[in-house]
Amino acid sequence: MKRYELIVIGAGPAGLSAAIEAASWGMKVIVFDENVRPGGQLFKQIHKFFGSKKHKAKIRGFRIGDTLLKEAEQAGVTVQLKATVMGVFNNKEITVMMNDQIEHFKGDNILIATGASENMITFPGWTLPGVIGAGAAQTLMNLHGVKPGSKILMVGSGNVGLVVSFQLLQAGCEVVAIIDASSRIGGYGVHAAKVARTGVPYYLSHTIIQAEGEDCVTGAVIGEVDDHWQIIEGTQKKLDVDTICLAVGLSPMSQLARMAGCEMIDEAVKGGLVPLCSEYGETSIPGLFCAGDVAGIEEASSAMIQGRIAGSVAARRAGYILDQEFAQKNADFQESLAQLREGMFGAEKKGKNLSHTDEGIPLSLTLLQEGYINEAEIQRFPGFSETISSETKTKGVYPVIECTQNIPCNPCQDACQQGCISIGDRITSLPIVTDKEKCSGCGMCVSSCPGQAIFLIEENYEEDYVAISLPYEFLPLPQPGEQGLALDRSGQAVGSAEIVKVRQGKAMDETAIVTMKVRAKYAASARFYQQLEGCLSGGSTEALAMKGGELE
Amino acid sequence: MSKVVERSQDLGPCIPQNDDDLIICRCEEITKGEIRQAVHDGMYNLTEVKRYLRTGMGLCQGQTCSRLVRSIVAKELGISPAELELTSARSPARPIEMQTYSNEVW
């Protein structure tokens, strides 16, 4: 029987990070993963991550995956793919299905990092082809390059539902609606807003009643629910969709921990049954660790830190790290992890109906209920009020930051070389535009914001016109000189727009900065650009007229 | 969890519901109605329901349905899902061909 100092089950962000950490201290480590490719869900994550520099913020998930694989190789970690762990037994012995046989391994330490599986909800038609998990949609699009469908209904407005909706739009699908039985959008407001401004409607307090179709989905019926989650008669609405994506939560895949005999707890905030873990991720069985979603649903950034912690604890158990060195390292990890858990979406405040930001500013209710901030509300936030509404009319360009919720993220502060943007030491604080006069218009803040919530406004671009620069992640990119529509935060056309500049660069990492010229009166409302041909919905002069906008 | 469910309690008749024909366990094609009926037949915990109906014993090993079955059984018993202990987690954790399973090396 082969023996390893650390056996890691699952080559996702948590497992790989633990393996790298342990191996870098000299441990003999092997990672088993049942999939053909390593990385867990990381390679499906094409969006930029939140957090700070040390959390790998503003880096796209799949690039983090590439880095982890490289680091694992350099550290001498063996990653055994197509290897399914079948059982965890006494004395940390495991059986693995690989090479058409069952092989036995023994670990001085074992880390279970098996992640989570998607929850399903049932309704008539839920077994029809075309009803898929949001994760499945991501796999199809981002790993295999296949469009999951043409017209999508997204069920669930948590971060998964919002992020996948945006990716569906990027893949060229039409997202017909995002619905959620809750009365508030569950995910980050900035994720909701970047989807809303393309024109996707939200239906809160709505659930799916039925998927229609004989052999596949040909439509969906949704309806509004009351306080007791019952459908309100007469609110039924039929949607013309061919695909229904379910993003209704994740469940930790904790079977191996149960099999091993770990003490378990059932906690709704962690997503279900999880092993009881110490601050080091150690279960009730000494030397058996859990990290990542299996220990409680969070996200990839915290999974990576949890993995690092477990890896270093294993190294300490094996005597590779001295206590003092470990204490220092662990303190750094714990601080980093605590930062990610702060803010209004952190474990402490999750699910609570907050009414104000930490700064005491009333939250935008339209953002929570309709997915976008209305013009009246945006003015009370520090990224906005310091700029447009200030009395001195500025010449030149300045940033407008529409970041209105306390989330752990600060790349904008680092991105600005001029020092115009400040978040401060507390990573969840709202960004403030401290000195707009210094803004050079470089756009690094615009492309670095993982929430795509920063815009540059250049007043007096031409007489009666302003230039608005916005983050743009759709193909084909607009071309300078092109005429199109300026959309407001809700995706409604407000007027015509002319593209005057399109910037791309390595540092922007595929977030192009598109600058459009619009009438000065739209400076505070125009936040997206819609191309006239092949545009996201409708299009043309007629569409503009229908939407109540005016064409110049 | 693991609260003892009173065996002698009378759940009353299993009254048909509109969505009884909804498939819950896709792998074994077991409907909501069958699960509800099983509870009324005396299967008061998830292990009994599983052995009676084979819910969660198919290809996905309950990955999709265990949460759903748990909530249906709990509702029928008038308790919270958290009070129902999950079925035992056992090796093999994934479906496996007997030929492979018997080919064991140390």
Structural class of chain A: alpha/beta
> How are the strands of the largest sheet of chain B arranged?
1-2
Report the total helices of chain B: 4
The biggest chain-chain interface is: A-B, 32 and 29 residues
Counting DSSP E segments of at least 2 residues, the number of strands of chain A comes to 28
CATH class wording of one domain in chain B: Mainly Alpha
Oligomer: heterodimer
Which CATH class of the largest domain in chain A?
Answer: Alpha Beta
Task: Determine the mean pLDDT of chain A.
Answer: 93
H/E element order of chain B: EEHHHHE
Domains of chain A, number: 3
The number of strands of chain B is 3
Strand proportion of chain B, as a percent range, falls in 5-15%
Q: Kindly report the name of the CATH homologous superfamily of the largest domain in chain A.
A: FAD/NAD(P)-binding domain
Shape of chain B: elongated
Distance between the termini of chain B: 38 Å
The CATH architecture term of one domain in chain B is Orthogonal Bundle
Count of DSSP H/I helices of chain A: 14
Largest sheet of chain A: 7 strands, mixed
